[in-house]
Design brief:
Chain B: It is found in: Cell inner membrane. Chain B: It comes from Catenovulum sediminis. The structure holds 3 protein chains of 3 kinds. Chain A is mainly alpha-helical. Helices cover 68% and strands 6% of the residues of chain A. Chain A has 3 domains: 103 residues, no CATH class; 95 residues, no CATH class; 281 residues, no CATH class. In chain A, the strands form 2 sheets. In chain A, strands 4-3-2-1-5 form a 5-stranded antiparallel β-sheet. Chain A has a two-stranded antiparallel sheet with strand order 6-7. The longest helix of chain A has 53 residues. By secondary structure, chain C is of the alpha/beta class. The chains are: A mainly alpha, B mainly alpha, C alpha/beta. Chains in contact: A-B, A-C, B-C. At the A-C interface, helix 4, helix 9, helix 10, helix 14 and helix 19 of A face helix 2, strand 7, helix 7, helix 8 and strand 15 of C.
């Protein structure tokens, strides 16, 4: 009796002390963090991950996100959050109490490298299988699928029963099947192959190809019946996967083409107005784009707390900035060059040099940082091998929106009517009391303003620097000429077809040659149809 | 005062003797002062100046070529840089082969950049490049052929005006991208450089430099004479007529495209010669010469100098190039303002360029004089 | 009468010139040949300012050999023939004693014949493809074996990369570097099908297809790494596309040789965090010299946000070395300085000392850094010792037998060790 009691008592004590010492161990391990360097931190992290403590997840996540620091003064490990006023809000890991805000110089980061972070992600994935959020669980299974081991597969097996989400279950089953495929018997492999033949996960295909390669090393006569069946199943599955992949590849290329096309469209559409409608060879068009991009930069500098909405402010701002510079150029220079289109080339070229240098003087020759809003980052994963990046998607939509808005303006508004009237017959329009001077200024301002909007978009894709405009000016001219001067629809078709043509060529020839082929093709095309895809007809054509 | 015969001569040849004379005097002055006076002497002209002037003269020849098609035929080519660069590359290939086994890898056959890209043998289009005669042929044939193909296609299908300008720009842009490719076998971005000698004469010696300079001046004079005779010939009149109204010329029964192709080819060859003379003097040719901006700059020389005036083109090229040299030295941070401002002001205020400005001022002066004399006469008449 | 006037005039000119020369003799002229306009201005302007800062500092210390240093700044405007012309101007007109300049290889190649003809002295501060050693040039940037090969070693041994994507802009530096790396990887047993090489034009801005291809290449089950020699402006769209297509540094790390602090200051760094760069200097390295240098730079430029980078350190080392060599030689005469340069040591900003070797290249440590959110690079790996810059790569068949040694008895930039001959070059 007494013995039993003693036994129970000791067990109780030891159990109690075990939990107590677990907490102590965790604290001790955390306190070791500041003393480790990149080479010897991994074992420590593994030890931390093995602890049965609810803080483990938090600490590991903070490390991966780069938010775990320690104070230089007392080596206290803290997690940090940036406050709006530039300081950092600290929370001690041990004790979990909030500390005084500090500037970054008082702290030092717990440093990691890619290798360590990817190890931690593996550890986290196992913990994440039971996370509340479905997306996190999904990501965790995906992580395991990419690099499975017996431990993680066992965990998946365990959680598969309790998992409720359809998607997660499916992915978990795929992971199990892949595992079966890798470790199972020949029959199991064959059945797994059949189960997996519709999966597009790269790891599935890799496993299959590897297996097929292994089987191919033997002569057919050396293979057993089961092996042969497996081989046939594998070949069939890989073929079907390949077929699907090639369909998605085609769609992907088409999307790439359209997105390149919409960038070209945005860059060229302003020129389609100034050059196509007014007949001014505006070599400063690229600089209007550049001004738009710099406007975005300035807007972001002025409202650093609203990065996510900055583009909505930047679009009208850029329209106004570039548009007013455009009007200024028209009033100051171009109106004196009426009827001498080739000389507008020279004058606007001079203006473009001045604008470039102006930007260099004001903003320095260095590129400027334009941040991407959160909603423009990342991609929309449609299936494991096909995704569409959000920024490209929005740009395609935006470009089309700008195009149709402009079209509506030209066709439906009275100002648009005046613009077209002046473009077709200036004298007659004047005789009908259209103020052609005013219309000219507005048209040029409109074209430049739209170039400015293009600049906002380009700031999301490429460098914001003094040379930004130059890289788009030639392409813009080509698009307008290819489409047919003075025809907005032509510009749309030209931009989209040039973009797609380029993107379908690129995988075959490499990007440099694709560019050259497109250019040569364009030159030859113009020889066939000297006025572009959609030539202007009637008296306005001459 | 001036004998009647000389006045007749001037009427007949226009600015030709003046230009040739100026060139001759400059050449004589530069060569004598460079070779005869030692460094430190007040009259010495430094080698730096010689190569600089040599470069300017190449540009002048190039401007002449642009003016011939633009000023007299109304073809605004934004791709003359391509012809210039092709001529340059033809010369560069020859000079490259002249290096022989003195390259860094000591390969007697292949240029350095091919050795280090592990090329086994010369590509076919380098065949014959070690021959001087072939080089001369290529300097003319390369740009000429390109101009012929491009011109005959474009002019036959009546591509004109802005479309043509943009197409020429696309052409030179495509060539630039192509020459940037290392697989093309023209040295990629680095181009051709590190030349040693030409026809056995070291490119580093002052005498060779002077000879090259004098040759450039000679070619410029010849080019000027050629253009002069072309524009004053019957054919030149047709060409000018095409500029002014192509459709009328066609209705009269001429075939404008033939004339256009012809003049385009001649102009391209002149540009090619300019390129060929340029390369040994500056010591490098690379795809940057194909860049569309360069071609625009050439047009600007002509616009500033005076479109449709041969000596104007030369003046334009010299003035702008000199301004560029000076500005980049005096105010490196601000020279683009000055250059850009110059372009804008010239197009606004001097629509006919410098060459148009001087005569118009003279005319005004003459007119004023005439007015004055008429007024005096009238006054005299009134008095009497 | 006329003749007299002429003589008088010419004597005036002559005396004024003599006076000018006498004035010139009181200062030591330092040529600065960096593009201040055009495409390269973005990188080169900083180096011009660095040289000016170094000159100012030296002058505060009393100059060199008792004379003040006088900078002569010209703008070659990113135009390669203009580089040659300006060099001639600096050497024959301005009579400078040394030139600090050039960034791109083509500008150096353009300048080289002029420098050699006029026996000038050029300090070239940027990492480059090697395959060159001129008597008149000192290369203070990294040769491929001081940047590319250690980076690949790191990826292979520490990250465990087995599949390689070599991305580059289509010009000579990426071409050569990739050739060297390809040979190196093959020597390490990497198979052809595990290497993908892709070249893009300058300023390439549409990376969708290439990044998608990299993603596909990297999904074949083996750890994949990208070695990027993508140049300047093309980098921003490249990294943006990487980030947007969901390729993180943990999946497919990208190690870049042309992305440093200065370039990063013009990026939105969020998609780059964790990717790698290999250099010989990072601003984040903690050392006394470095802190001093950074403070001096920020004060000189009057901007607290400006960063320092590797080519600036190379300029710094080059300048210090030249100053030391001039003092050692007791003259600014090129041949004497050139001889005095070899063996000169200057403390690196990152600790240790840089040595100028007989092949006119430096011995430097190699650092691999991970890009941080604030645009700085944190060292994750460094070579245990300094690495001697190799003018001629051992991995290229054309140059494996060549060495450069500018001391007696070899005294040649491209000495063939098998034939014991100084091949090519006039020197």
């Amino acid at each position: 009796m007494l013995r039993t009691f003693c036994l129970i008592f000791t067990m109780l004590i030891s159990a109690l002390s075990a939990t107590a010492s677990a907490a102590e161990d965790f604290d001790a391990l955390i306190n070791q963090l500041p003393h480790k360097n990149l080479r010897n931190i991994t074992p420590l992290l593994e030890k931390i991950a093995a602890q049965d403590d609810e803080r483990v997840r938090f600490v590991l996540t903070e490390i991966v996100n780069g938010d775990l620091y320690y104070l230089k003064s007392n080596k206290q490990v803290v997690s940090i959050r940036k406050t709006p006023d530039g300081d950092y809000q600290l929370t001690a890991i041990i004790g979990e109490q909030a500390l005084e805000n500090q500037s970054k110089s008082a702290m030092k980061k717990i440093r990691t490298s890619n290798r360590i972070r990817s190890d931690i992600r593996g550890l986290l994935a196992q913990l994440d299988l039971t996370h509340k959020k479905e997306a996190v669980r999904l990501a965790a299974v995906k992580q395991i699928l990419d690099d499975p081991n017996s431990e993680s597969i066992a965990l998946i097996k365990k959680h598969l029963k309790t998992e409720k989400s359809e998607d997660v279950v499916q992915l978990m089953e795929t992971a199990m099947a892949v595992n079966q495929f890798k470790t199972g018997s020949v029959q199991e492999k064959t059945s797994a192959t059949k189960a997996l033949k519709n999966s597009l996960e790269p790891s599935v295909r890799n496993a299959m190809v590897q297996e097929l390669n292994r089987l191919s090393e033997y002569k057919n006569s050396e293979l057993s019946e089961d092996d042969k069946a497996l081989k046939a199943a594998l070949t069939k599955a890989i073929d079907s996967i390949k077929q699907k992949r090639s369909i998605y590849e085609f769609i992907e290329n088409l999307f790439f083409g359209l997105s390149l096309g919409s960038v070209l469209l945005l860059a060229a559409i302003g020129l389609a107005i100034t050059f196509g409608v007014m007949g001014v060879i505006n070599m400063a068009h690229g600089e209007m784009i550049m001004l738009g991009a710099y406007t975005t930069y300035v807007v972001q500098q002025l409202f650093p707390q609203w990065i996510d909405y900055s583009l909505f402010i930047a679009i009208p701002a850029a329209f106004i900035v570039s548009g007013s510079v455009g009007i200024l150029i028209e009033r100051g220079v171009i109106r004196f060059l009426k009827g001498r289109p080739l000389e507008t080339l020279l004058a606007t070229f001079g203006i473009s040099l001045i604008l470039q240098q102006l930007v260099r003087t004001i903003f320095s020759p260095l590129n400027r940082t334009v941040a991407a809003p959160e909603w423009m980052s990342g991609s929309w994963q449609i299936n494991p091998i096909f995704s569409i990046t959000y920024n490209r998607l929005y740009i395609v939509i935006f470009a089309l929106a700008v195009f149709f808005a402009l079209l509506a303006f030209m066709k439906r508004s009275s100002l648009g009517l005046h613009v077209r009237a002046v473009a077709q017959n200036r004298e007659m329009a004047r005789a009908l009391s259209v103020r052609s001077d005013r219309v000219d200024a507005i048209t040029f301002g409109l074209g430049s303003g739209i170039a400015g909007i293009a600049g906002v978009v380009l700031s999301q894709l490429t460098n914001v620097g003094p040379n930004l405009g130059q890289s788009y000016i030639i392409d813009s001219f080509l698009v307008v000429v290819f489409g047919g001067v003075g025809n907005l629809w032509g510009t749309l078709v030209a931009a989209m077809s040039l973009g797609s043509f380029n993107k379908f060529l690129e995988p075959l020839t490499g990007s440099v040659l694709a560019n050259i082929i497109v250019l040569v093709g364009l030159v030859l095309f113009i020889q066939k149809r000297p006025k572009g895809l959609f030539p202007q007809k009637g008296r306005a054509a001459e | 005062m001036i004998p009647q015969s000389i006045q007749d001569l001037f009427k007949k040849f226009g600015s030709l003797p003046v230009v040739v004379g100026c060139l001759f005097i400059t050449t004589l002055y530069v060569s004598v002062c460079n070779l005869a006076f030692s460094e430190g002497s007040a009259l010495h002209v430094s080698t730096y100046t010689v190569t600089l002037f040599g470069k300017y003269l190449c540009y002048a020849l190039l401007a002449l070529a642009v003016d011939l098609v633009w000023g007299y035929c109304g073809i605004l080519s934004l791709g003359h840089g391509a012809f210039f660069a092709l001529g340059g590359y033809a010369m560069g290939m020859y000079l490259m082969r002249q290096i022989g086994d003195r390259g860094v890898y000591g390969n007697p056959e292949l240029p350095d950049f091919m050795v280090f890209l592990n090329w086994e043998s010369l590509p076919w289009y380098w065949a014959g490049s070690d021959s001087f005669i072939w080089m001369i042929f290529m300097v003319l044939a390369g740009p000429g052929l390109l101009a012929y193909i491009f011109g005959s296609m474009a002019f036959r299908s009546r591509v004109s005006g802005v479309y043509l300008s943009i197409m020429t720009q696309a052409m030179t842009y495509a060539l630039m991208l192509a020459f940037f490719r290392n697989e093309m076998g023209f040295g990629g971005n680095n181009g051709l450089t590190d030349f040693k000698d030409i026809l056995g004469f070291s490119l580093q010696s002052d005498t060779t430099r002077i000879v090259l300079f004098a040759l450039t001046a000679l070619f410029l004079a010849l080019g000027f004479a050629l253009c002069h005779f072309i524009v004053n010939s019957k054919m030149g009149r047709v060409v000018t007529a095409i500029r002014d109204s192509e459709s009328r010329v066609r209705f009269i029964g001429y075939k404008p495209e033939h004339y256009k192709v012809w003049i385009f080819v001649v102009s391209a060859m002149l540009a090619g010669i300019a390129g060929a003379m340029y390369v040994p003097q500056v010591g490098i040719i690379n795809p940057g010469e194909f860049s569309p901006l360069n071609s625009i700059e050439m047009v600007i020389w002509v616009a500033i100098g005076g479109r449709g005036s041969l000596y104007g083109a030369i003046i334009g090229a010299l003035v702008v190039s000199y301004a560029k040299t000076r500005f980049t030295a005096i105010m490196p941070e601000a020279w683009l303002y000055a250059l850009g401002g110059l372009f804008v002001l010239v197009t606004l205020l001097l629509p006919k360029g410098i060459a148009g400005f001087v005569p118009s001022v003279l005319d005004k002066f003459k007119q004023a004089k005439k007015d004055k004399s008429i007024a005096e006469k009238r006054a005299a008449e009134v008095k009497s | 009468m006329k003749l007299k006037k002429l003589i008088a005039a010419s004597s005036i000119i002559a005396t004024s010139m003599v006076a000018q020369m006498a004035y010139a003799a009181e200062t030591i002229k330092v040529g600065v040949l960096h593009s201040l306009s055009g495409t390269m201005a973005i990188s080169e302007t900083t180096l011009k300012d660095t040289v000016l800062m170094m000159i100012e500092e030296q002058n505060k210390k009393g100059g060199l050999l008792g004379k003040k240093l006088e900078p002569v700044v010209v703008d070659p405007a990113s135009n390669w023939p203009l580089f040659a012309e300006k060099t001639r101007e600096l050497l024959s007109k301005e009579k400078v004693d040394v030139i600090f300049g050039c960034w791109t290889s083509v500008s150096r190649k353009s300048v080289l014949p002029v420098i050699e003809e006029l026996n000038g002295l050029l300090f070239y501060p940027v990492q480059y493809e090697g395959e060159e050693s001129s008597k008149n040039v000192f290369y203070t940037g990294a040769a491929p074996n001081q940047q590319a090969i250690p980076a690949v070693d790191y990826l292979m041994n520490d990250i465990g990369a087995e599949r390689w994507v070599l991305l580059g802009t289509d010009y000579v530096y990426p071409r050569t570097t990739n050739k060297i790396l390809e040979a190196y990887l093959k020597a390490k047993g990497v198979q052809d099908k595990d290497i993908m090489i892709n070249y893009t034009p300058f300023g390439h801005s549409d990376w969708q297809s290439i990044v998608a291809e990299v993603k596909k290449f990297g999904s074949a089950g083996k750890k994949t790494a990208v070695v990027s020699t993508v140049n300047g402006d093309a980098n921003v769209p490249f990294y943006k596309e990487l980030g947007n297509q969901g390729i993180s540094a943990e999946d497919i790390p990208v190690v870049a040789f042309s992305v440093g602090e200065e370039e990063l200051s013009g990026f939105d760094t969020s998609p780059l965090v964790g990717h790698l760069a290999a250099w010989n200097y990072f601003q984040s390295v903690e050392s006394e010299e470095n802190e001093k240098f950074i403070a001096q730079w920020k004060k000189f430029i009057g901007d607290d946000k400006r960063v320092t980078n590797d080519p600036m350190e190379a300029t710094y080392i080059g300048f210090k070395m030249w100053a030391k060599a001039v003092e050692k030689a007791g003259t600014t005469e090129v041949d004497a300085v050139e001889q005095a340069m070899i063996g000169i040591t200057v403390p690196n900003l990152t600790g240790g000392t840089a040595v100028m070797n007989a092949n006119h290249h430096l011995s430097k440590p190699v650092l691999i850094g991970e890009i941080q959110e604030n645009g700085q690079l944190e060292v994750v790996w460094e070579t245990p010792d300094t690495v001697i810059g190799d003018a001629w790569s051992d991995f290229l068949p054309s140059s494996k037998n060549l060495i450069a040694d500018w001391t007696k008895p070899v005294n040649c930039g491209n000495f063939d060790i098998t034939s014991a001959k100084c091949s090519g070059q006039n020197f």
